[in-house]
Specification:
The protein is of the alpha/beta class. The protein has three domains: about 70 residues, Beta-grasp domain (Ubiquitin-like (UB roll), Roll), CATH 3.10.20; about 100 residues, Beta Barrel (Elongation Factor Tu (Ef-tu), domain 3), CATH 2.40.30.10; about 130 residues, Nucleotide-binding domain of ferredoxin-NADP reductase (FNR) module (Rossmann fold, 3-Layer(aba) Sandwich). It contains eight helices and 15 strands. The strands form three sheets. It has a six-stranded antiparallel sheet with strand order 7-6-9-4-5-8. Helix 6 links the parallel strand 11 and strand 12. Helix 7 runs parallel beside helix 8.
Length: about 300
């Protein structure tokens, strides 16, 4: 709360419950001992540096905290909802127009925090639009049973509602100074940051070869098919590979099946000159890292966002 009062917007996706690990700061002095709730997110090396979860540090006396420059660049934005649409049975597309300030500068792949009105809690959502669309923010939101914010967005949020967001945040973003081939692997709402990356690269002429593997359970869980197939036709450097793990008979699916990581293993040749962007559930990302490193991709060139 001290940070928010002073317009320093430290990210959090769990409402201060120590379940996301996003709010890491470096405590130089004060703050007391690290709590058991922090240990799952702060390894021994980071503990020695004084890394803590801001939501778990109780300020009782003077405390000295080092804040990274990217957090100091995050701002608060007032927005108005322009559009809400269904992408699947449990995923919505939300477009918000920025009012004040009226533009946001971010890197393709980063996220914002959505403030739930009246409750005054925040949840993190990746930006699905390209950075060039600085006057709007597009989100892709899956309904999580019992989820405070996703339930609000799916059941309460309406066009013309005014919403406060903060950001941008995150170290998961496109490395633009690289010439390496790109592999993207996503599932569900992991589509959002990868879509931002893809359309940013499209605006740059798709200068590097890029393969996008998207995993879903059945055909009803796939979305943006026409958009991505059109991008594939327009950009020879781009390949889109949707993969279904449990296709239904009525799907009449002729594409790739199995886990998305199995498709990656079948398609990708060994290549050390590759970087990867992974976004989705932790088990998928952990499996993808194993496959990619086996194929010669260096771990330092694998960027991921688990949620």
């Amino acid at each position: 709360s001290y940070f928010a009062q002073n317009k320093i917007f430290v990210p959090s996706a769990c409402g201060g419950k120590a379940t996301c690990g996003y709010c890491k700061v470096e405590v130089l002095s004060g703050g007391g001992h690290i709590l058991p709730t922090e240990e799952v997110f702060v390894n021994r090396e980071d503990r020695l540096k004084g890394i803590r979860l801001a939501c778990q540090v109780k300020v009782k006396n003077d405390i000295e905290v080092l804040i990274s420059e990217d957090l100091l660049e995050a701002r608060e934005y007032k927005t108005r909802v322009l559009k809400i649409a269904d992408l699947t049975h449990d995923i919505k597309y939300v477009v918000m127009k920025l009012l004040a300030p009226d533009k946001i500068s971010f890197k393709a792949g980063q996220y914002i925090q959505f403030r739930i009105p009246e409750v005054d809690e925040f949840r993190a959502y990746s930006i699905a639009s390209a950075p060039s669309q600085a006057g709007v923010i597009e989100l892709i939101v899956r309904l999580v049973p019992g989820g405070l914010c996703s339930s609000y967005i799916h059941e309460v949020l309406d066009v013309d509602d005014e919403i406060t967001v903060t950001g941008p945040y995150g170290s998961f973003y496109l490395r633009e100074d690289s010439q390496r081939e790109i592999i993207c692997i996503g599932g569900g709402c992991g589509m959002a940051p990868i879509r931002s990356i893809l359309f940013h690269l499209k605006e740059k002429g798709m200068p590097r070869p890029i393969s996008y593997f998207f995993g879903a359970r059945s055909k009803k869980d796939i979305f943006y098919t026409e958009e991505l197939e059109a991008l594939e036709k327009e950009c020879p450097n781009f390949k889109y590979i949707p993969v279904l793990s449990e296709p239904k008979a009525e799907d009449k699916w002729a594409g790739e099946t199995g886990f998305v990581t199995q498709a990656v293993e079948r398609f990708i040749r060994s290549n050390g000159n590759t970087e990867a962007y992974l976004c989705g559930p932790p088990p998928m990302i952990d499996a993808a890292i194993k496959v990619l490193t086996k194929k010669g991709v260096k771990e330092i060139h694998i960027y991921y966002d688990k949620f």
